[in-house]
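anyone seen this seq b4? input:
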Amino acid sequence: MPVIARATLIVVGLIGLMLLMVRIPIIGNDTEDRPLLSQSVRSTHNPEDLEQALRLWQQQQFQSAAQLFSHINTSYSAQTNSANTSLYQFYTQAYLQGQNAKLLLEQSFLPQDCTQQLLFVTANIRLLAQAEHFKSRFSQDPRLQSLSICIQPMTWFDPLAVSCEENWQQQGRLGCDLMVLAQQLKSLPFTHLVILAETGKANVHNGIMYLDSQDTYDVFVHELAHFSGFIDEYPLSTALAKRVCSAKASPNMTFKQANDLQWHSSELNQQTHLSPARTCDNHPAQAYKGSEQLTFMEFHDIAFIPESYLKAWQQQLDGVQHLPSAHINFAQSYEQQNNHVESAFWREKHQRLAAPQ
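predicted toks r here
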C-alpha cells in the first residue's frame, strides 16, 4: 500500500478517536455528520452567532469566544451547524486547555518511511478550515499517492505564536517571525512546516511554505514541489534568474548556458523529449523542461504532473540529506539573534534527519 494511503488510514482513525473523545463530530468536506435524535429538534442556528464568536476570538476575548462556540454546538441542530463550528470549538478548547502538544503527539503515528512530515501552522482561526481542506485533498490526490510525504493530522493553532507580514523584511513576500514557534515545536515530530496567514505572496524558504487565505490547493501542490528542488517553469525575475539559471539542473529542468556546447549533467539530459522553458527568459541561459506539455510548475491551475517529474520527485525525497528542513529555518533565525545554543540545537535536529539510514 502506498505511503500516503497507509498514512491516511492511520490519520482518519486517530482523528475519529480524538474527536469522539471530545464529543466533536468528524469533519469532512464531502460528507455530512449524522445528527443524533436529540439534535434533530434543536432550533436553526443564527450565522451571526458564529461570526460573533470569531470576532471575539480575533479580539483575544478567548474565553467568551470559546463559550459561544460551545453554545452554538450544543444548542443547535447538527444539520444546520457548519462543520467549521465543530472545528473551531475543538481547536479553541485545545489551545485554552494547553492540550495542543499532547493531542498532536497522540496522533503522530505516521509511517516511518514518510520522508517529509508536514505540519500545518496558523495563528488565524478562520484559516483552520483551509488547512483541513488542503489535508483532505492531499490524502485523496491520486497524483501524489506514490510519494513518501505525509501530513500531521492536527494543525498547530496558537493565536499568539506566529506573527506574519505581507512584505516580510521588505522582500515583497509573505514571511513570519519564528522565534516563539520554534520554542513550542521543539519536541514535536515534523520535517517541514506549512504556515497559513491572512495575506501575502506564496513562497517556500528552505523547509517552510508560506500560504495566504486566497491560495488554493493547486498552489499548495506547486509550492510542495519546491520543497524537493523543483523550479518554476514561468519566467523568473532578473534577480532570481541570475541565481537559478546559473545552476546545473533541477528535478524538472536543465540549463544550457550561452556559448556552452555541452549540457550540464542531469538525468533530464538523457530524456528524448526536452522542451524549451520560459524560466530563464530574463537570463542568457536557456532552460529546458522535461515535458512537452504545460505542467503544474508553470501554471498553478494545470493539474498535469508528468510521470518523469513524479519519479524525479521521489528520487529527491530519497536523497533527503540534500534537502533543507524547517529546522534550518529555526537555526538561521537564532543565528540572526546570536543565540548559538538554540541554533546548534536545531542544526543538530536537521543533521539527525539528514543522516543516511
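The chain is about 40% helix and 15% strand. Residues 182 and 354 are 19 Å apart (CA to CA). kinda curious what u guys think
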